[in-house]
Amino acid sequence: METLENSGNATGSAHDETGADDGSGGPEAWNHPPRGRSRTVRRALIGAGAAVAGCAVLGGVLVLLPGEETPRAGALPGPAGRAAIAAAVGAPAALPDLTALIREREAGVREHPRDDGALAELGAAYVERGTRTARTADFPRAERALRDSLRARPNGNAAALDGLAALAVARGDWPGARAFGERARKLAPRRWSSYAYLVDAYQGLGNGKAAGKNLEKLTELASGTAVTLRTVAVYRDRGWREDAEAVLSDAVARAGTPAEQAALLARGGELAWERGDAAGALRHFDAALGADPDSAAALAGRGRALTSLGRSSEALRAYRRAIELRPAPAYVLELGELYESLGMADAARTEYDALRQRGAGEVDVVVLGRLEADHGDAGAAVSRLRAAWKRAPSVGVADALGWALHRAGDDREALGYLRRATDRQKAGTVRVAGFMYHRGVVERELDLAGPARRHLGEALRINPAFSPLDAPRARAALDSLGEPDEGGPAQMWAPKRR
Hints:
Layout lengths: L38 H8 L32 H10 L6 H17 L4 H18 L4 H15 L5 H14 L2 H14 L4 H13 L3 H14 L3 H13 L3 H14 L3 H17 L3 H14 L4 H13 L3 H14 L3 H13 L3 H14 L6 H11 L2 H14 L3 H13 L3 H12 L1 H4 L5 H13 L3 H14 L7 H12 L17
Helix pairs in contact: 1-11, 2-3, 3-4, 4-5, 4-6, 5-6, 6-7, 6-8, 7-8, 8-9, 8-10, 9-10, 10-11, 10-12, 11-12, 12-13, 12-14, 13-14, 14-15, 15-16, 16-17, 18-19, 18-20, 19-20, 20-21, 20-23, 21-23, 23-24, 23-25, 24-25
Keywords: Membrane, Repeat, TPR repeat, Transmembrane, Transmembrane helix
InterPro entries: O-mannosyl-transferase_TMTC, TPR-like_helical_dom_sf, TPR_rpt
Protein name: Tetratricopeptide repeat protein
């Protein structure tokens, strides 16, 4: 049951795509965090003034309008003002405050329809709300407002380009996010949020070097939750789990709002669950819910951890509440698979059908590919994922396409993609249990008993309960392979010279 949001769904296009310098180094240089970045220096990533900085989802998606100032000391802003201030420093605004800001800007653009700044801020606010709630009806509204802003001010409009980059990230359109982010960066090289979206974009495109380069620039310009979560994502992808956890621990201690604290604790729970510590993950998610009882990410994570611990009834309640708050496709798929693992086929089918009805425009391509490969039309999944691979050859798409090919009966081609998804030189050093399981299953089908035994065993060592459906299958497949044959070469080392 891997978390699968925004792994490669392209739903829009961008203009004047520019190629960024990929940065220096590569996976072979990713064995350690940047030199000299001790625990003390890592704290600088968070920053002494980060008590109100950061955003749980799309840090920096909103900006203050040109010429606007934060309220003077002692002033008490209203809901829309609070949302604007939070956005200016990258903090997550409360949803009621965000809605108040949207209403205020809507009224403003009705009166001044060519106010490019208000249009850009309105579009960015729609992106933020749509992402936070997983209700994608806000995305077309966002695109209209942002493109109206560009029409009102076609040159030098970094705010609108930033908003379009954020929208592309929200839709999983990684080439578009790269193109818009690079254009915004060129116009305003000191604008921190452009680098945040470029980190997202290059990670989605499977270009870890460029993601790391943009992260370095981002940490020079800003601090807070938005920066922390992207730092953790890059560190995690490079296999630096302890450093990722240290960054999170420092950030939690400095979090200035319950929403920030909940986002950071939930991310820590995800890292703990990925490495098989379900009890530790549950503690993180419970702490996150103590800070923000309506954190959908923490509720879904709690459902995942409870599933791993065999507490299925509680897990079902957690997932249902998470989906009520934020009907993210990945949560719906996980709930369906939990139902299926419990023998509740009708309930599982209801969740799967709900995802299909939402369609490709609303469901991340990897989630939809997994849905069809495992619970529907594997051939359709292959076609969809091949197109996604051409647009954005990321690790997540490689794994999903390889698995779909296996489910469609083409194990030889499948193995090439699955090797790419698990190769330390191409995919980084992070090890994902589900990816290892997929590779091991295909190797077993191809009578590669040794590699199959190794990768199935690794999947279960990483996380013994990585999926309510697939973890038991991994054990059964490993058991079917039995122990390695005894014996081997009569002489394993060259004879000594005389």
